[in-house]
Write the structure tokens for this entry.
Amino acid sequence: MPSRDATLKDALFIAELDEELLSNYNGPHALSALKMMAYPDTVSLIYTDEENSPAGFAIIQWKKDHSYITQIAVKPSHQNRGIGPVLLEECERRVFELGGPHMLELHVAEDNARARKVFETFGFEYTGVAPVLFKNGVKPLRMLKFAKALLQSKA
Amino acid sequence: MPIRDATLRDAFFITELDESEFNRYAGPNALTPLRLMTEPNTFTLIYAHDDLEDLQLGFAIVQWKNGGSYIPDIAVAPTQRHRGIGKILLEASETKILEMAKRPHLIGLHVGLHNALGRQFFADQGFKYFQPFVPRFYANGEPALWMVKTIG
């Protein structure tokens, strides 16, 4: 499995990719991913490519029964290679390991068709609009998935 | 001693403190300490609260090399100064460098020419001025003094 826990040496990669891909929605915020990772009960994952270089990351805020994927991103040069689903699967596995059957939540920008497709294909379902808009005014759509489902189907 | 190796959870504290302390020298660039910490042969130490390991009070980034090491970044939270935290961070850095070098070793750092408090602090810790000073060392055009110390 080419995903592992992120370390301090990954902080630059995460901050840069976060800024590159997500600043359009939240403004320049190189520190936002770092802030997320500083919270207790946060799991940060890195996907490494065939050269062992970071190619994507996911940050999960773990809570009993209901966790939240605060950020997930793949380097533009590595997109369309199935890395997002691998990271999502690892997120699901981790929260299940930590807390058993589990609700997994994320917010996706209404105009981010590519990401929405990835999450839909992975089994996330829309449950409404999150209350706080992105800074650029785009609606964040709330998506949920019950983590146990995937694990059972794979058993 | 409340010193430990930095982890990913400390990255936010380090970048925030670096930004607040060194902004005027280097301009707004939150990624600078992250770049430093990502380089090979670099270690980062955290001084944390005695009872709360997650509460960081200061940090030091050290680039270790066989011939001599360099401290590109060291800072203590403004509310925690004058408690000897900077001294402890330096001593811990020196201890770790010596463990790796296993012989007398040269440590260098730059301090702003106009940073009187910083210059006094490093002089008190045994650092000596090493000429020449570096003109326009910082992005804002300020010069820096090169200070060195031999340990071991």
